[in-house]
């Protein structure tokens, strides 16, 4: 199967400062891919190249076999959408905010949204479960609701590649599960390819089909969660003692952290 | 012997005092261009040791500049060792207090509100510099010339006058000022006679429909203002072609000599 | 959704147009010379008499200038608040008024004003404004291209400080008449006799309004912040640069012709945002028209409060705008709404 997103020896980064080193991986269409790794390992840098915030060199990133560095930012916005961790709640209603996702499709002198724009907005607000909130002001929503609105806005861009930068890190467990379930559905139902940065290794393991583990700007390991999430890899990358088991329901690896208490008890027992 | 000495000393002292009374102060600093002008018209410029940067005649004569319009250099004044400093109302009272602390006599001439006050101040100045008679003579001379002009105008019809002394903002001569006397002398009515503040709108002037307009702004602006007024063809002053420009140097300076000069310009303008 | 929102906009515009008409009629009817509404209609037909001259040469140009300057300054404020995303920004935050005022002060003090005539003031004022804009622009260019909004604000504020200190220096060494002239210019005046200048002001104001509509979609996207707007495919650096130039030009022309009229560019954008929201499609024209109405009313007050003397218009806009702002802030406080 051809790679839908192919990253090829990517070396881009901040001028004169941190940048990636030979990052390469490929994911097929409709795959839910997670990017994991410690702080400063280059995860956000990688994403910024895909959104256009950082300049990427030629032939470093291919989307559906098209060199991303040659694509205009407007065309890119019609293909790639990003959901970040927080949003600044501007003084608009949920409806107005979501429909802003159609901006890349506006013609030169088109001042008003088309009917198609409104239908899409309605469809995705319903899909993310925020349709009933559509007349509320953004600032009046909870963090979880705001994130769902964010996802709706990303979806009306009709992207083929959806990027998420730690979308659930600040949310409670019910919203975390709700959002990740939603995203997983998107890959299944809509065939969208998803690239998500996530800190929680267990959530990554449970939901992602493919993982890229990064350290110091390089790809440390890539593959299925079973291939990537073993205690040797995690210890080498995170410099932390862990043990892994299998989730009895989904058979995916589960990472248990080993606290100091347990370590000291264990060493006592050994002696 | 003692008695002789004391009486001699007393006599000398009295002579000195009388001398000063008779011949006036000898080292004078002027802090206002109008006062400098008056000193020159009394031909006493030799007694002037200091002036402002705006005193044209004095700076040409290379008198020492001790002040600008707003700031006064106290140290320089003291260095000149004056026995009299004359100032106008624009001088900051703090400067005056400082000078008096150094024992220098300061006489303040507040802006005269009429021709009569101009005369009184001129005579007072004359007295201070020992030229009281000369001052009185000049005043009488000027006043008689003015009376001749006033008589002529007293016969003619009273006309409405607008006397403009500023362009941006538009500023008029107010009643109870010495410049208002120009208007009185030609038997005119100041259209601003009911006002207490001088910034007026153009519409106010047009509503007043003056028969005569005098403009005293300096430079090109005066001509531009005249053209602007002339664009209102229905104004009485425009119909009779009675818009005149007078140099602000002579019209706005409160001294008898310039007052007469101004009246002469006005007289000649109106008689033609 | 769409119908109710656009309906609200249409209704708003209708109300504003009616208010504008009312303001214009009021402005034409008020003054030392008694000209009533019926008189206006009669005079426009006969075209004769001193009243006609007053109407057409004094009141009408004033009203038109108030319309253009009020609209331009409010539009500029809306544009800048959109680009800087800071509710305290107004056209003079960039130092334009400081540069223009300083230019005018030099012109008066050096006597250039008296030699070259009244036209010298607007020309020099505009030159001063342009210089300031160049400074702010070139000091704010980022290495990667685009403009640093942060640095623009700082440079503008610094230039304002320097300009006002320099002006105070000039005023301390010059004559009382010059000082009066400088201060009068600074406080703003709509009584410009040169019809050509008024025409320029109107043309520039309209040009600014129309050209800003070319960027209305980009402005709407910028509400999300520069980064998020870029994610939506907007070329933010071009947008910010163009908007900055448009706002500077219309402010520069307004300041040159009418002096420093403050608060209009600060208060009206806030008012518009409160009434119709932050969508630029309505707030561009909305702030233009409301700004015009506001300035026309302030001018009527300036002419009538201490008639026949005239108050400088900057005084009226300052007080009226300031009071409105405080009232708005205190009501906002109780509603716990944000200032954005």
Q: Would you write up a description of this structure?
A:
The complex is a heterotrimer of chains A (271), B (272) and C (340). Chain A is an alpha/beta fold. Chain A is built from ten helices and twelve strands. In chain A, the strands form three sheets. In chain A, strands 6-7-8-3-9-10 form a six-stranded mixed β-sheet, with helices on both faces. Chain A has a four-stranded antiparallel β-sheet with strand order 2-1-4-5, with no helix packed on it. In chain A, helix 4 packs across helix 5 (143-156). The radius of gyration of chain A is 20 Å and the shape is globular. Chain B has helices at 2-23, 33-41, 56-60, 74-79, 93-101, 115-128, 132-155, 180-185, 202-208, 220-230, 236-239, 248-251, 256-271; strands at 28-30, 48-52, 64-67, 84-88, 105-109, 159-166, 171-172, 188-190, 212-215, 243-245. With 272 residues, chain B is α/β, with parallel strands linked by helices. Helices cover 50% and strands 15% of the residues of chain B. Chain B folds into two domains: 23-136, Nitrogenase molybdenum iron protein domain (Rossmann fold); 152-271, Nitrogenase molybdenum iron protein domain (Rossmann fold, 3-Layer(aba) Sandwich). Chain B has a five-stranded parallel β-sheet with strand order 3-2-1-4-5, sandwiched between helices. In chain B, helix 6 packs antiparallel against helix 7 and helix 7 runs parallel beside helix 13 (256-271). The radius of gyration of chain B is 22 Å and the shape is elongated. With 340 residues, chain C is mostly helical. In chain C, helix 4 (96-109) packs across helix 6 and helix 4 runs parallel beside helix 12. The longest helix of chain C is centred in the first third of the chain and has 36 residues, at 49-84. The two termini of chain C are 22 Å apart. The relative contact order of chain C is 0.16.
Low-confidence stretches of chain C: 336-340
Number of H- or I-type helical stretches of chain C: 15
Helix content of chain C: over 70%
Q: Write the element-wise H/E pattern of chain A from the N-terminal end onward.
A: EEEHEEHEHHHEHEHEEHHEEH
Structural class of chain C: mainly alpha
Q: Biggest interface, and residues per chain?
A: B-C, 34 and 37 residues
Kindly report the spatial arrangement of strands forming the biggest sheet of chain A: 6-7-8-3-9-10
